[in-house]
Amino acid sequence: MSRPPPEPVQVVKHRRDAALKALVEGVPYIQYLGIAFERRGDELTATLPFDDKLIGNPYLPAIHGGVTAAFLEVSALIELSWSILWDEIESGRIDSDTLDPTTLPRMPRTIGFTVDYLRSGLPRDAYARARVTRSGRRYASVMVEAWQDNRDRLIAQATGHFLMPTRDG
Amino acid sequence: MSDRKAEIARKFIEAIPHCNALGMTLNEIGDGMAEITMPYDTRFVGDPVTGVLHGGAVSALMDTCGGAAVMSHPKSPAATATIDLRIDYMRAATPGQTIRARATCYHITRNVAFVRAVAMDDDDENPVASAAGSFTVEQATKR
Asked: Which of B17, B44, B88 is nearest residue A52 as measured by Cβ atoms?
């Protein structure tokens, strides 16, 4: 019995990048805020490029607290959806090349989301990484952190609880 | 006095670029209470299949409304910033309907203001989301 040869790296990367693209590009609000996701293996980093329309305090100026909350919530939801999607595409149950908003598995729904504001968001790009701390059949919990210039100086952190999508397609 | 404070708060809210970007309108403000509306917009959709608004847009509305309530409180000197905000989503907002948030600053100390808020669509009886948060109270003596 010999093992099957490993998949070519381009095939693996293409599959994962196509799935992530389908997941992110289908959501109008993510496009409106200009949030993009970078992938290394299964690890995602979200970027929120600064734009004047994100300003909440024109005198400082600072990013609107609501934008920070939205950025964290988008990052948490995509991380959770991505973790669901990952298993589906890696197992071959879903073909990433045919994915679009109508064929994607349904997204989890936010039950509650709590944001702690630690520093004011400066007029520059912000980054976020989320971690699924619990993923069950019905409920999931996600922690997320956002920062700007220094990874250790968070501008905000949040936890969210989500209702998992039902598996009936 | 209170009217003047409400007027300052109104000017401040109306000058916020992100609030204009989301199409927010300040309906009512004064004595620690504020009401802000945000019309439905397909650009702010979170679920392309159902057309339901993204929770993040509702968060932005709740945050703004909470801040406005704090600014209009008789004991609040002026500007404020969010310390924390917790939002519970009770149901999906009905696609096509305007979201209306109402926030109350129910307690204020020298340093912290406490706020509760609800968001509704056309069905007033069943709120879309509720929020609780704390905000900073900026000391007027700073400048």
From this structure: B17
Distance CA A87, CA A139 (A): 17
Return all residues near B100 (Cβ < 8 A) that are at least 6 apart.
Answer: B27, B35, B36, B37, B119, B120, B121
- The string of pLDDT tens digits covering residues A35-73 is 999 999 999 999 999 999 999 988 889 999 999 999 999
Enumerate residues 6+ apart whose C-beta is below 8 A from B7.
none
Cβ of B49 within 8 Å of Cβ of A67? The answer is no
| Chain B contact present for A73, CB below 8 A | yes
CB contact under 8 A, A29 and B43: yes
Cβ neighbours for A152, distance < 8 A, ≥ 6 positions apart? none
pTM higher than 0.95 = no
Tokens 């209702």 locate to A163
Q: How many CB pairs under 8 A join A and B?
A: 128
Number of Cα atoms under 13 Å in the Cβ half of residue A75: 33
ipTM exceeding 0.85, yes/no: yes
